[in-house]
Specification:
45% helix; binds FE2/S2 (inorganic) cluster; 233 residues; alpha+beta
């Protein structure tokens, strides 16, 4: 066949086969190589050390997965009933067991003081207490809370026997800590948890306890002063 006629010999069928082959190769590479590599990287950098029941916590809760969890809230496929102890009261919720506690508090119990920041246990905005210990509620599935006592910023004052403010909250006001305020509920919950276990923390104790609470406004120095002041009361 002359060279000139050969160059026109690729028909629609050939192009379709080539396209299908390319897509198949990409699918195989993505599923066999990319997804396992992504998961191993993600699992390396998403710690679950803030969860007291770490074995029960799924370690790959990406923002994409959280969108899927939201989808389940709207179109529930699996729903279980939980009687959670939140701020001293038993609250019943019917939710997907994988739902992070953060969304149960905010979307089902209207406790919106707990904030969503990163969704991957890196910023501390979602910090609440479980039996007095600071945990990242964005990484704590509701199914692992069990009979634990959950305290949010709304119920913190009551844990100190106050109807208005916890000593840490008072110190925050005295030192005029907050700027935009978005991170501050989480900062206060972490600080209160620190003082529960270490009533007179050193600078190093404060830095260690607060190092994973991020403040984009840079209020760290005032936070440290406020914690020291709360510790003296
Ligand atoms: S939202 Fe939970 S740590 Fe950032
Ligand atoms: S006060 Fe704005 S993020 Fe902390």
């Amino acid at each position: 066949m002359p060279l000139a006629s050969r160059s026109y010999s690729y028909g629609l069928r050939d192009l379709t086969v080539a396209f299908a082959f390319t897509i198949s190769v990409k699918l195989v590479v993505t599923s066999v190589i990319c997804i396992p590599v992504y998961r191993s990287i993600h699992e390396t950098f998403v710690p679950v050390s803030f969860c007291p029941k770490r074995k029960a916590v799924p370690i790959s809760q990406s923002p994409l997965l959280q969108l899927r969890i939201h989808h389940h809230l709207v179109n529930p496929t699996t729903v279980a009933t939980y009687n959670l102890k939140v701020n001293g009261k038993i609250r019943r919720v019917d939710v997907d067991p994988a739902t992070p506690l953060l969304w149960v508090l905010r979307d089902h119990l209207d406790l919106s003081g707990t904030k969503y920041g990163c969704g991957v246990a890196q910023c501390g905005a979602c910090t609440v207490h479980l039996d007095g210990t600071a945990v990242r509620s964005c990484q704590l599935p509701v199914s692992v809370v069990g009979k634990g006592a959950v305290t949010t910023i709304e119920g913190l004052a009551a844990t100190a026997g106050s109807a208005s403010l916890h000593p840490v909250q008072k110190a925050w006001l005295d030192h005029d800590v907050a700027q935009c305020g978005y991170c501050q509920a989480g900062q206060i919950m972490s600080a209160a948890s620190l003082l529960n276990t270490t009533p007179n923390p050193s600078d190093a104790d404060i830095e260690a306890a607060m190092s994973s609470n991020i403040c984009r406004c840079g209020t760290y120095l005032r936070i440290k002063d406020a914690i020291k002041s709360a510790a003296k009361k």
